[in-house]
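Sample A.
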Amino acid sequence: MKYARLTKEQFEELHQEFINFLATQSITGDEWEDIKKNKPEVAEQELDVFSDLVWLGVLQKVKYLEHISPQQIHLFQCNEKSMRLIALKIENQAIDFTTKEGFQWLRDNLLSDSLEFFNAKKDYSEDKYLDIFKMIQSGANITKGELFEYFANLIKG
């Protein structure tokens, strides 16, 4: 398995897609029940293959990621060959970007000297989608990119 097995809840949500996946391999419902009962290792492999296909479908659509921690915000734009990062950092431990108050402080103090901005570009390894997957596994969230675009325009201006 390249990514991670879907959770029980995710499999339940994708029940019809999983049935279609089995059908593409000419596995009927009865055959699937038989495989689960008599060949659990084969059933596990099918679950893993399906999970990887679902993950790949999701990862191919990712354009933006955000990772917000108390004193740092990392905003990523996932381009074809590389990833662009805009990062914000604050040393003041009293400000927590993960709270409504901390985020409001950020909005009110964008030009504060205590706020550091970083702008970088990084090429992917040989596997772009695995790179993105690892970031999600470490806490990044897939977004529509509003925050990234806001700060990208702010940096340009």
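Sample B.
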Amino acid sequence: MRAVIQRVISASVSIDSKVKSSIDTGVMILLGIEETDGQEDIEWLCRKISNMRIFPDDTGVMNKSILEVNGEALVVSQFTLHASTKKGNRPSYIKAAKPEIAIPLYEAFVAEMQTHLDSEIKTGEFGADMQISLVNDGPVTILVDTKNKE
């Protein structure tokens, strides 16, 4: 499971020119799920994200978590995070999970994040053509892969 985590001042996801979800201060999470991911990946990643100290304290040092700043989260599924570019110029998405595997894992990830943050998690729509708008704060953008825990 891969996640691109962006600290944002605001973020939104639109479908057919209509805003589906939006947040203010918090994190935009682009989530890539692969065939071998499971509940252990979900739990580890949610714990990592919710405790990640990427928000500034009173002195401007990144020393606070999303929990400590009462931030919001917007989670959007993005299979392209598992693109392989080793051969040719057209990325291969063979490692990305098929919808029958990815959708339940995506929904479980959102539910687990909700328990960690104790607030509603905003989402995109799995499989939809979405437009993402965000104001990256910092900029702070972090890539986390559950296959590289150590």
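B remarks: The first helix runs from residue 39 to 51. Helices lie at 39-51, 99-117.
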